[in-house]
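Page 37, continued from 36.
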């Protein structure tokens, strides 16, 4: 694996992370919209059960994390059996998860007049006091999902996470190893630059069976680029570290040495020294 592959892998990881975050956000928005529709349908059915086909179901409100509130224009009588069945049927049609707590709250004193718990397995749910009709009054129906309803173990996006995590670890280990330099079979330290091997201590590049000699300034310049691949290094920084720190002030020497390095790197078109106009240069891998 070379530096080019590392940076492509890093870009892919970043891309998949963005896609995953975007998908999670979209799922949450879709879930909230679907829940509101399902609750409005349930409210409509509760009114019909009271022989009321004219009064309004008030807008569904989000009152907490995965918690929704349904209210009505006029008082109504509610039978617990009907409430449980109507909400269950509406949620099933909307393909909402069967994991929620429902509370029927009296408007006048905000007391819970009736509540029940639904779990994935119907036998594990808790639905008390069935068959007792609650008197006509102003009620608010509150529904809270007990697990993150936007998460699904079958979501294909989530299948990428372990693979991406493993790839990220491999890429990081490789990058750190490459950043510090790798020993050759002869114990010489080198840096991989595409098809090239850069030996800073020997002032040379190697590609295949060919050794390419570097002057001291070429070697110092290339070493700076290797420290920050794919990052723009300002002209002032390059000239200061290679020339001015040694008491030498240059004019166009930087451009001359960049040109020389380009010629020595031209055998691999995945390795480029790019001019960023008015700023500096960067080593693209």
């Amino acid at each position: 694996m070379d530096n080019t592959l590392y940076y492509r892998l890093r870009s892919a990881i970043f891309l998949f992370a963005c896609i995953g975050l975007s998908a999670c956000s979209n799922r949450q928005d879709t879930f909230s919209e679907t829940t509101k529709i399902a609750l409005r349908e349930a409210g409509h059915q509760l009114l019909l059960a009271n022989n009321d086909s004219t009064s309004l179901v008030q807008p569904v409100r989000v009152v907490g994390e995965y918690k929704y509130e349904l209210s009505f224009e006029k008082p109504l009588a509610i039978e617990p059996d009907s409430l449980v069945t109507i909400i269950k049927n509406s949620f099933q049609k909307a393909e909402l998860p069967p994991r929620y707590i429902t509370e029927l709250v009296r408007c006048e004193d905000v007391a819970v007049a009736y509540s029940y718990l639904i779990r994935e397995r119907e036998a594990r749910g808790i639905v008390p006091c069935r068959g007792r009709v609650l008197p006509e009054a102003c009620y608010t129906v509150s529904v809270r999902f007990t697990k993150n309803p936007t998460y699904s173990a079958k979501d294909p996006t989530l299948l990428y996470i372990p693979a991406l995590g493993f790839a990220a670890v491999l890429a990081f280990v490789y990058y750190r190893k490459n950043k510090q330099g790798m020993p050759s079979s002869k114990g010489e330290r080198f840096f991989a630059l595409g098809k090239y091997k850069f030996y800073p201590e020997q002032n040379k590049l190697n590609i295949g069976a060919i050794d390419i000699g570097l002057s001291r300034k070429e070697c110092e310049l290339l070493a700076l680029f290797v420290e920050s691949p794919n990052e723009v290094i300002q002209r002032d920084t390059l000239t200061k570290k290679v020339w001015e720190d040694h008491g030498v002030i240059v004019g166009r020497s930087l451009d001359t040495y960049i040109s020389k390095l380009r010629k020595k790197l031209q055998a691999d078109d995945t390795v480029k020294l790019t001019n960023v106009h008015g700023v500096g240069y960067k080593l693209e891998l």
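The chain has six helices and 15 strands. Flag for discussion at group meeting. The longest strand covers residues 100-106.
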